[in-house]
Input
Amino acid sequence: MRKIWIGLVKLCGWRFDVPSLDERPELLHCVLAVAPHTSARDYFVGTAVLFSVGANPRIFVKKEFFNFFTRPILKALGVVEVDRGNRHNDLVGSAVRLLKKEENVCIVVTPEATRKAVKRFKRGFYEIATQAGVPIVLGYMDFKKKVAGYGPTIIPSGDYDADFQKMIEFFGPINAANPEGWYFKK
Output
């Protein structure tokens, strides 16, 4: 199923800027922060990139995307159902436990946590990486250039504001699917 998914995305004209796992072994065990997230199309392109590198993703997606038809497909693709309305779901704790339990797993999060324009990333992905002791890899999809891949790796310093600034410097020039929803566009 993964090869078909990759083929369909490439058939739509996308190119992948992906290293081998030998070059970027941190892709096997990290928090992958993917931005900009302004469209549901981000999911289709982003998962193809993940599959092409051979990562073992756990992709956090809001529960509203799950139904009788989509649930088995999404579960097979590594999607984790998230109840964003439940403040007691311990999403950070669950992700940290998963990263500590499994050696080769990549937690995929969109730092905006919504497709609407935001002025600041949510901190959950940063807390997951910090508490689990794993790096944050920046993933992107440039819809104007039709290129998707992996950017720099950030080791959480504990100074969220400084690390956030590095992320914005990288993500700022990326062309979102819906540019009006990308707050950080320079």
Observations:
- Residues 41-53 form the longest helix (13 residues).
- The radius of gyration is 15 Å.
